[in-house]
Write a structure and sequence with these properties.
By secondary structure, the chain is of the alpha+beta class. The protein contains 2 helices and 4 strands, in the order βαββαβ.
């Protein structure tokens, strides 16, 4: 990000499933390049989210998986031009982000 008119928008999600959906929305609906989107655990510990979802959720007649590390939230960040920041803030909010910040 050498251009000072670019911003990094950071959203925090409770589940990996929600973070993955946000990434797909940014790429498919807002035209953000996948190479400009980053996903990581929000804290220092490795985590797949703070809550069970997606492949971790219980299937019919089965218990929920317990081998995924649920130690914290998932962070999705995107490097975008300044004119797209408002759209990303709205999209992340609409997609259930717990927090949205910019830097």
């Amino acid at each position: 990000m050498s251009d000072s008119s670019n911003k990094t928008i950071i959203a925090t999600f409770e589940t990996r499933e929600a973070a993955d959906l946000a990434v797909e929305h940014l790429v498919q609906h807002l035209g953000v390049e996948r190479t400009d989107i980053f996903v990581r655990a929000a804290g220092r510990e490795n985590s797949s989210g703070a809550g069970v979802s997606g492949g971790d959720a219980a299937a019919v007649n089965e218990d929920a998986r317990d081998d995924a590390r649920l130690g914290g939230e998932i962070e999705v960040s995107a490097d975008v031009s300044a004119d797209k920041t408002a759209a990303l803030h709205r999209a992340f909010g609409d997609l259930g982000a717990l927090r949205v910040t910019a830097k």
